[in-house]
């Protein structure tokens, strides 16, 4: 919103986003060097709509129309969590670090450390997944990347360091890339979706083609669609770089989640109505194949290019976050002090570079081991998902914890909406943790326990300096 007047807030939004004192009605033009409403919304949408949306229609084809039920439930859970983050952003507008900062405020040092540790692992592991996916899509244009692990690995490592360089130049640099890549990625997705809805063949849409029990099919679709919503908290992480965070972060979080949910559901319907379920399930690039059937061979490559840009845009946004999380924890003396160091552009450069170094090591080990792109992608997706689910559950309860700490500020009716969407978000997070399987939970617990020696070392450092 770059006009002179702020966009009016509905009574519902005012109730959800009420903060101490009056809401500011200052212009929404972003201050110099700050992220405005459009950059933050692009960051949320760009981080959620990464590589997954280009592949999910094929994965969901076996469930047919029943997959829409899973999409709707997952979307509702994601919106509940988006409202949790939006409300937390109004209560703690200048707290940088997103989930970590909110959990630290609500539950104290130890919970804050565990979440920061796990969330940081999720960030750089997720970046590895996005890098692998981007290189896989590049294989459409450079087939040698599909035949040589060395070429694929070198390209992946080069890509992650290119994005790191962009982010090292400051929040505005990352924000501009987020806007451009989000617009570019949305155009082919929206084009194929709209055209698919206009040319939809009802005969192709089968509610449950494999006749699986709904009690089994719906949780399975929820597990598949979960990855598509990771990143809804993105606008809250670089809060210190956001213009008017008490207004910008809540609006960007909710708007970005709603836009992504609408596109996910509409695109699933469109592609299921363009191709028979068996054909869609066998497609390695469902959007590109749909574009080719609609407009010809050129469209196949155009959508493939959109997929590459989509991965690059999501990688850019997540790379911005991987430096801010350890820096926020270091400012609270829960991570080593060197994570606080910033470069001339105000970027927490140590966390950014160390995270990218860890991504590089992970990619080098997996590619050198001879794993295929799909195997590497599945491994790091598992690693990232296992360490992202817990912060979501904690944040749903952290909102109520922060409100209890400030209970004198709230009237009884002020608790109704937060109780509803915090409860909904918490149940959704628990359900997705349960539905992700024992192996995911095991990885999550092991990775969290691996951080305990670091916490003890930092505790010792704090005692010595006290």
UniProtKB/TrEMBL annotation:
Function: Major component of the acid-resistance (AR) system allowing enteric pathogens to survive the acidic environment in the stomach. Exchanges extracellular arginine for its intracellular decarboxylation product agmatine (Agm) thereby expelling intracellular protons. Probably undergoes several conformational states in order to translocate the substrate across the membrane; keeps the substrate accessible to only 1 side of the membrane at a time by opening and closing 3 membrane-internal gates.
Subcellular location: Cell membrane
Membrane-spanning intervals of the chain: 35-56, 68-89, 110-138, 150-166, 178-198, 218-240, 252-278, 298-321, 342-364, 376-403, 415-434, 440-457
Membrane topology: Multi-pass membrane protein
Organism of origin: Vogesella fluminis
UniProt protein name: Arginine/agmatine antiporter
Primary location group: membrane
A matching Pfam family: AA_permease_2
Family to which this protein belongs: Belongs to the amino acid-polyamine-organocation (APC) superfamily. Basic amino acid/polyamine antiporter (APA) (TC 2.A.3.2) family.
The entry's keywords: Cell membrane, Membrane, Transmembrane, Transmembrane helix
